[in-house]
Every structure is written in structure tokens, then in C-alpha cells.
Write the C-alpha cells for this entry.
Amino acid sequence: MEISGKNFIGDKLSGLGKVTYKTIDPLKNIENDTLFVEATSEELKEAVALADAAFPIYREVSGTQRAFFLNTISDEILNLGDGLIDIYCRETGLPQTRAMGERSRTIFQLQLFAKTIETEDWRKNINEEAIPERTPIPKPSLSKTYLPLGPIAVFGASNFPLAYSTAGGDTASALAVGCPVIVKSHPMHSGTGSMVSAAIIKAAQKTGMPNGVFSNLNSKSYGLSHELVKHPKIKAVGFTGSFSGGSALNESVLKRREPIPFFAEMGSINPIAITVGALQKGTLEMAKKIAGSIVLGAGQFCTQPGLLLTIDGKHTDTFIKELNKALEETYEQCMIHPDLKKNYIRQSDKINGLNETVEIQIHKDQMDDNLVHPKLSMISGNQFIANPQFQEEVFGPFSLVVKCKNLQELEQVIYHLEGQLTGSIFAQADDYELIEPLIQAFKSKVGRLLFNDVPTGVEVSEAMTHGGPYPASSDSRFTAVGPGSIYRWIRPITYQNWPMELLAKLMN
Amino acid sequence: MEISGKNFIGDKLSGLGKVTYKTIDPLKNIENDTLFVEATSEELKEAVALADAAFPIYREVSGTQRAFFLNTISDEILNLGDGLIDIYCRETGLPQTRAMGERSRTIFQLQLFAKTIETEDWRKNINEEAIPERTPIPKPSLSKTYLPLGPIAVFGASNFPLAYSTAGGDTASALAVGCPVIVKSHPMHSGTGSMVSAAIIKAAQKTGMPNGVFSNLNSKSYGLSHELVKHPKIKAVGFTGSFSGGSALNESVLKRREPIPFFAEMGSINPIAITVGALQKGTLEMAKKIAGSIVLGAGQFCTQPGLLLTIDGKHTDTFIKELNKALEETYEQCMIHPDLKKNYIRQSDKINGLNETVEIQIHKDQMDDNLVHPKLSMISGNQFIANPQFQEEVFGPFSLVVKCKNLQELEQVIYHLEGQLTGSIFAQADDYELIEPLIQAFKSKVGRLLFNDVPTGVEVSEAMTHGGPYPASSDSRFTAVGPGSIYRWIRPITYQNWPMELLAKLMN
């Protein structure tokens, strides 16, 4: 399939704009061929108008039909074949196995949401019968169900061109419940986004969905994004990315006359706390496991463990040596984009430039092009507490070891943390009482708490919470992963005193 | 019980401030005796510090114990006896029967929330077992539950001194799930608020709840409210009141570094659409029913029907005459506060001053003191569509009849409406196909849709939605009434790979 570089305004390819850009092959450090045309303000307005017109039709489509649409999207993505894998790799520098794994995850998500809405169980319908004889006032019949909010704007992540982008979790969950979606394509992988968009449009046409149920807008400049989230007909926004990106977009959302739900997953540093007992039991296996999590995907995961909380002592010294060794033994990896490599160097240098930071694994960044090595640094507990800059996320294979005086100081470090997607505790059976204060401290800070496990690898299931207190997410009451993520895009409605024959239709 | 006029900073009565105010008996149009001392910034900070310290303790209290606390609050409110009813009436001008009815509702709500949390079902715990043999990667065990957000600020409504104020729905739902509550007392009924606060504190002490689980701050000035919602340790805000009040407070919430959930129920004009068929079937009964809903509680309900959408014709003329007559026959009623009467006159005069508005029921406002008569006005469909000022809520027994050319224009009127708490359709059996477009139009606009019924009277039950698209509420995804209202104050958390013995405790 040839990539046109144009926008999808509903089912129409459109490239009216004059501003263009290309994506980059970070492995070769050259530009890819396709010239992408940034969407104009007029194209944006047309996409929103189509979505708004499609909404009342799409809202009434049955769950079975919408499930068919989602399953057809997953078929059409698979039909893109090796072409999709090729462009994915050329736009990210990530290996083929990763591309194929992420495609599987994307397919799985689409099918899971299809299953979620195939029956109407997700609407949690409640029917209460009238009690006309109740005193002092009769009770009317009441029936509660859920409705979609309307057209949703989706901003995908740089690090998941498939699973958290064009047809990723946000899009799939919104389409599932009857919300049209307008994706602002991520400029680092607009080719991948274009191919997936074509698959979605094809599926919409095959399954008879209204035109406008999906649009895809290219843009490297920020203006279009802000215009999109400020548009009065956009009824919610889904964002996956950095804290700075999410915050900038939220500024525009807050300027709207009508407030709308803005769900942003903005990453975190995912602290791992390690007890002395856990280290006494043996450090080597743990060091390898944690090193693997730090460097996975060149550390470009929102759940990458960037903070290791330890207690000063000889076992910790051994652990740090072994962790350092395990990190040294990993291959250099290519980052997704030159900008991400630059940021990685800048952000890790910033931490290392802070008072008293000790660089354990030192690389003078002589790596070719976009390749990087992992980095490991160290700081004391009270230094960490004293300076909030230590909490800034370094996007890449970097981790900061915090050496605390004792468990009380470690607990204080957790209390001083900002909200996190995840927290982990490594401990052994004897520690159960000892870690109780750590558990309590983490409960106020994280969306997911792990025991003797690393945070990378976010299971797509009912029991997952991918979110957490601010700034990990903009609203800790929702998850971005799993069937529960649909509740970001729907609202309850109650029907009172309706005759049965009308009610039956209203409740579906 | 004597009312001290002081603030409750946790279990301590405190009146350090210099600014004082009194409440008003609107029937006699005189000030009540008690001098209320506005809370100072220091008292506010102390209340928040106590709530923050109480939170990790209160969060861990079992559901059974918290249910016991809520039930004891309801006992202690009943123990206040006639004293509470007296001050309620002296601060609102509402009749004793209403005071007693609202007390029953408040008690019922507290007991309902107690029942909701007595078992841990509300946490919707999900447990997924590990699948170590899964390929390519093993599945870890995952358990999802819900946690409270933290200290909540509650702002009660002028029109419900009991059911939507100090121990009303917001407070009860927040306390139920483990959130400490700080109430900013409504200055129109701070005496009622003080008595209820004393009952809550007594219940907290009797049931061994941590000090700081509840505080009550007096203030007539706005500064304290803004300071409260901006405090970093406040984790969510519940508000019931006017659009202007809610919007002003939200401005401050938006200035926070950490965004927090702000749930505001800001009222609406609750349109009732009436088909020609419904009128043909007979207008008298309908006119009486709707008139009763318009004047109930002097029209001081957020679900008061302030907009009647009709189709021009002789049946409509008959209906308007009968409605007018039914309104004329109602007694004059006392409004809760001189300011509310002034607003009622100002707001209804504003609508009547707009081009082409026809006043049907004319009162020159010669009523004594705080008594009011109902008012009825009329405008055409296209005039209504042309001027959004017709959509401004008149808080009081006012309703605006919109005469549309035909059903298509009526449908257009609905499409031009802002978000509403409720919408109603009066129709007869033959109309079912005819009203389909009205139903579709209303579905995008309301939180509750009624058939041949009036919107006043909000049932407290699982199937209720009290909320709706902006500006009826600030977030249409939640309800302010019923057990479901707890989901405003809680967030999910997932435990991964925890040993059973620790998990059992974490999931409760």
C-alpha cells in the first residue's frame, strides 16, 4: 500500500495545506520518503463536522454491529501485512519482533473491546419498577443506562505507534461505545498512522458505518492540536505522552467555554522499593530482572522503572554493582527519534548535574546517531527529598538509585513522591510487617502496586489500572488500559416513567 | 441545643475570626439571633491539616465501622429533635412539613450509603489469577479495587439545608467511601448547618472515628471558599448551587497546580415538551400537574420546569389558560432569603424585558417582604432559538412557554438547548413515532428523560441520574444522587503479583 501523505477527512483523502514534513528512520538517521501534508484549519473543521453529524447515527448502531466494525478494523490491520511492519520499523528503529508484538496487542485490544460491547452489559442497565402505592409519594419507574459523550479527539504516543496510537486503546475504547474519533497523527510515525487509518476507513465502509466516524489529521506543528481540543463539538480528549505535552494541551482544554473530560496519561518514574531482606536473599537475579525492565524498548516505556529506593548497606552496594554490570552487558539500542535521544541525554545530564548525584554507569555519549547506552546514577534519601528535580522523568534507559539511611527515610521518600503509574516493593516473606508503612505510603501515590515484580508490561485486562494520581494521569478515577477504559467516554442517563414498548429501545 | 456560631475545626469549636454575620428569618424578614464567626485562613488550614492526617486512618476503617458512623450520624440528627426543625424553618421560611420531609430524606440517604458500604461490594473487586505457563509471556496475578481520593470540600445548596448540605448527599457519599469532609457552611442557613455539624462530630466521637474526619467552616464572604478549593491537600470538591457560583469556584480549582475532580450540580431549566396529541387528550389535569411542579417549594428546585415547549394551536391556547388559572390559584409562598426574592424578580423581569416576550401572568411584585407569586411568560420558537438569554435559569416559580410553529421547530429548540438535568415529553400512545426525533434530540442534552411526568422529586436510588451535560453539571459522567454518587470520590488501584496473605488485607 502506498502512503499518500494526505489527511483522512472521513473517507476522503485531503491535502489542502502547504506545510509538509517527513518522518525519520532513526537507525539510518535519514528521512523517510513520504511527504506528509499538515491538515489545515478548514480540514479540521470538516472532520469535526463529519464526526458531529455521524454521532447521532453511530450512537444508535447496535453493539453487535459496532463489534463487527472493530473486528473488521483488526482484520484490515492484519491485511496490511509486512508493509505495516516495514514502515513501523523505518519510523521507530524498533526491531521487527517488537512491531509484531505491538500489532498483536493492538489486534487483541480491538477484539477485546468488540467482545466488551457485543452484549449490552457494559451499559450496566438498571431497571426499577414503579411503586404507585408507596406513601407519602408514589415511586416512578426508573431505568438507567449509559450513552456515549460524542466526538473524541485522540493523541497517540511516540513510543507505541500501534497500541497507543491511531487504532490503539483510546480509539478502540471510544469507537466501541459509539463515539466518533478524530486522531491527531503522531508526527514521528505518521506513515504507520496513515496505513492504520486506511484500514479503519476501509472497515467503516465495509461494515456500513457513517462517514465521519473516523478521521486522521497530520500535523507536526502544535497549532492544530490546540485548535482540535478547543473545538466546541469535541466532547472529550484522550492523550498519551509526556507531562509537558499533556499539560500544554490541557491549557487549551481549560480555555473552553464548555469543560470536557480530558484524560491524559503522562508517564512517571515508577519507583521500586527494595528491602534489605530482599537483597539478603540474593541480589543477582533481582539485578538482572530490574536491569531488563530499565532497558526494555530502550527504556521508552511510561512504566520504565526510573527510581530504585534502597537502604544503605553492603547488600545494597553488591546489588548496585550487579545491576551496573547487568546494564553494561545489554546491547546499545536505537531510540525512536533523534529528538528522543537528545532529550534522553539532556534529561539524564540534568539529573547528573544536580548536587551530589553520583554517576555509576558513565557514558560520554559518543554513541553513533540515535543509539544509546543505559545510565545509572545515585543519590541519598535526604538529597532526593530536598530537590523535586530528581523526580523529573528521564525518558530512556536511565535509573536513579536512592540510598536511604533506613526504612523510615525510605517511607518519607515515598511520601514526597508525586503521583505515579506504578510502584513496586521487593521484599521477602519475613518483611510483611516491615513493609506495611511502605504499602500505606504507596497507596496514596500509585495506580498499580507490584510485589517482587517489575512494572513494564501492562496487561490488557479487566483488573488492570493504567493511570494514577496526578501527574501520572490527569484524572486518577479512570484507567487507560482494559475494558474499564470505556468509562472515560460515556455518561449515565435515566429514563423515568416510560412505557415498556419505548423503553426497550431506549435501553439498548 | 444552643448554637455557638463558631466553626468546627475537627471536634473543636473555634471562633478566632473578627468577621461575623447572622442568618435571616425570611417570613418575618428579621435577623436570627446567633452571631456566626467566619473561619479564618488559619482555621481553614488547621481543618485541612486535621483532615489530611485523618485520611490514612479513616481510609483503613472497615466498611462496617464506617456504616456504623453514618447510621450514628442519622441517629444524632434525629436526636436534635424539634430544635433542628425550628431553626430550619426560621432560616428558610419553608413550612415544617418540608423541613421534616427533608430530614427524612437526609436520614434515608445516610442509611442508604451505610448499606452501600457495609459490605465491600462497592469496591467491585476483581481478581485475576496468574497464568505462569502463558506464552510468549506469563500472566501475573492482578487484583483491582477502589480507594478514596482524600479530603473533600463540600459546598451545600441554599434550597436544601439538610439533604444537599452539611450532612447531605455529597458529605454522606464522601464519608461513606473513606474521604474526610470539610463543609463550607451555606451562609443562608448556618444555624441548621451548625446543629447538623454537632451531630456529625458527636457521631464521630461515639464511633471512634479519627479527629478531622469532619470540619465545618462558616463564611459569608467568598474568599474562604476559594482558599479551600485551592488548598493542595483538598483532593476533590462537591458543589450544589447556581451556575455563577459553581463557575466562580471552578475558576479557582483550575488555578491549582494539581488538577482535582470538581463536581458541580448547577441547576437547569428542565424543559417539558408537549405534543398536540397530549393536549388533545385533555389539558386540565396536565396543567394542574405542571403548575404544581412549577410552584413546588416556591420554585426553588434545581429540577423546576422553567421551560414549556408547545406547538401553536387552539389546544395549546386552552392549556396555557388552564395552566395560568392553576398557577393563579396557588398560594403565595415565602422565598428562602431576601436575596433569592430579589434575584427572582430581577431574572424574571430580564426575560420579560426581552423582545417579544408576552407576560401571561402579571404580578407587579407588590407582595410583602419575601413572598412571591408564580409568573408565566411566552415566546415563539424562533425567538427562543435566536436569543440564548431565554435559557438563563430563573430561580423561583417562573416558567416560559415556547410556542413553536410545528414539531420540527420544537425539535430545533431542543437542539439549541444547553445541557439540562432533566427533559420531559408529554405525549399519548399515538405519538410514539412522532416523538422519536424529540427523544433523539433530548438524549444529547439531559441526564434524566421523563415521559408524562414532571421533573421535581428526585428519587434517591440506584437508577437515578442527577447530573447531565454542561452547564447542568460540570461532569456528565457522574450523578450527585443515589449510591452511584460515590464514584466521584474514589479511584481504582491494581495489585500485581501479591501473595494471598497480604492481598486479602489490601482488597478490603
